[in-house]
Design a protein that fits this description.
globular; isomerase; 10-stranded mixed sheet; Alpha-Beta Plaits; PsdUridine_synth_cat_dom_sf; 5 helices
Length: 250
Amino acid sequence: MRTIKFIIEYDGSDYVGWQRQPNGLSIQQVVEEALIQLLGQPARLFSSGRTDAGVHAHGMVAHLQTQQSLPLRAFRDGVNRFLPSTIAVQHVEEMPPSFHARFDARGKWYRYNIYQAPVRSPLHARTAWWLKTDLNLDAMKEAAALFVGRHDFGAFRTSGCAAKTTIREVFAVDLQGCERLLTIDVRGSGFLRNMVRMMVGTLVEVGQGKRSSKEIADLLAGRDGVGSAHTAPAHGLCLMEVWYDAPSGQ
């Protein structure tokens, strides 16, 4: 049995998310159906995690177990032949049999895009949150530093999150403005459901003068009377990369 690792890029605008769902078309379903056409037999992908409806990915990781002896390039080019223009396998790699895309992941990098301008941009409409007024970047950077470290992010998850613990470690939150585009890069060991979007939404409120840095500290401490964290729109979020330990011997 071979274990094949896939790195998949997609525009999630037209999908219900990564995971198969009964209420619409998912990325997983489309890629698995392409694999079935290539391999001529059932195929199931195990991913590094989920992305919600409208969220994009530059580097979603998934793995497939198969007995097929196709060369690696055939898994990439063959699957891409059956995929729509919104999804593409960018890289394939053969892994040890014990590899698991989800359970072996050591960290993830998400990027959130914000477009600041008085007029909307059609070119950024599917990949950035449009805000008409400028944000206070210095205030947002100061607040972002509070997220770094190991904290209880229970206030930064939505209902339906099935995580057993709300303790997560955030390695870095970096904000960079370039002309009208603001990028927020969040790196961490793992994330709760909608955690990054709620972090971004709260930082935007700080940038708008609607919240203070102290309120973020209060949210992380679970103090009452702070209000809930605001959730940024899905379409500005992109999963950039998933990290793994190097296989033994490398």
